[in-house]
Write a structure and sequence with these properties.
By secondary structure, the protein is mainly alpha-helical. It contains five helices and no strands. Helix 3 crosses helix 5. The protein has two domains: about 50 residues, no CATH class; about 55 residues, no CATH class.
Length: about 130
């Protein structure tokens, strides 16, 4: 975690005009105390992200060293399994909260009737698998 009492270091950077506008908008909206604070926060988030990626890379390397390289086929199979599980969980949720399908359709800009039809098929599939 970042220590607010740490001494700041001045630096000069070049950024895209859109980034400056976003930083200034954050300050104007009260989401940041200053452009510097906004940039500092962004750099801190990137640093945390980079550390997380490095940790995952190390974990995967250790796994592959012990079990062999993860193949594209294994990745594709896991992605399919994850999608099926997510679809089943969504269908089970919508069965209990039908308004969620309409909200999701409105947020994605799709026709609510089409989304509801898809959810209904998913709900039947989930019930057949015992997920609902």
């Amino acid at each position: 975690m970042y220590d607010q009492s740490m001494k700041k270091v001045r630096m000069t950077v070049s950024v895209d005009p859109e980034v400056v506008a976003a930083a200034e908008a954050a300050v104007d909206a009260g989401r940041s105390s200053s452009v510097s604070a906004w940039v500092n926060s962004a750099l801190l988030k990137q640093s945390e992200h980079d550390r997380g990626v490095a940790g995952w890379k190390q974990l995967i390397a250790e796994y592959e060293a012990e079990h062999g390289v993860i193949t594209e086929e294994e990745m594709a199979a896991q992605q399919r399994a994850d999608r099926e599980e997510a679809d089943a969980r969504w269908a089970a949720y919508v069965t209990q909260h039908p308004e969620a399908a309409e909200l999701r359709a409105a947020m994605s800009g799709t026709d609510a009737a089409v989304a509801s039809a898809g959810v209904t098929r998913g709900a039947r599939k989930a019930k057949g698998r015992g997920a609902a």
